[in-house]
Write a structure and sequence with these properties.
about 180 residues; mainly alpha; 3-stranded antiparallel β-sheet; 8 helices
């Protein structure tokens, strides 16, 4: 809901309301609030509770994008020679989900599958540290993605370019396509 804009920045969240909505006790909600705070999607203030974090400022956005681009292209460059057929099968499946979401005009699903695609690349690296560094940066950046323009198929084409270059064994083109996808 945060990433798709259903919950606007500054929206107050209450454990009891969220637990009722999802049919779970308050303990898991409290844990989720803590995790989302660590990821930068929520903020907590004493006596004010939990709120949806503000989007990165216009000054910070280019830095967040550059950090994410640097991490992801570094990982892809590093792992390129170890990419397996199973990786390609997984990314192809996610790409189909991206295409389907774009064709249906479902921005929420597009954001979800876009995140899965990039997360899968980062997590394919043996060093979990990359994922731990990448995750809060990617989450902060995704907070603004629900404002996609009308041509959702452009997102599909960008992801397809990454996968096509990987399939053809062209590391330079794959890294370049990935960098161009992260705006």
């Amino acid at each position: 809901d945060i990433l798709t804009g259903r919950l606007e920045p500054g929206t107050a969240l209450r454990e009891q309301e969220v637990s009722g909505r999802f049919g779970v006790s308050r303990g898991p909600v409290r844990d989720a609030f803590q995790q989302l705070t660590q990821q930068g999607l929520l903020t907590t203030e004493p006596n004010k509770g939990v709120r949806v974090a503000p989007q990165p400022s216009m000054t910070v956005r280019p830095l967040v994008a550059e950090l994410r681009r640097t991490i992801e292209t570094f990982v892809l460059d590093t792992i390129f020679d170890q990419i397996t057929e199973q990786d390609i099968i997984e990314w192809t499946s996610i790409l189909r989900d991206i295409e389907d979401a774009c064709q249906r005009g479902d921005k929420a699903a597009l954001i979800e599958h876009d995140l899965r695609f990039h997360r899968s690349i980062v997590q394919s690296h043996d060093d979990r540290e990359f994922y731990l560094i990448w995750q809060p940066i990617a989450m902060r950046m995704l907070m603004q993605y629900w404002r996609f323009g009308e041509d959702l198929m452009q997102s599909y084409e960008e992801h397809k370019a990454v996968l096509d270059a990987i399939r053809s064994g062209d590391k330079e083109a794959a890294v370049k396509a990935l960098a161009e996808n992260i705006q």
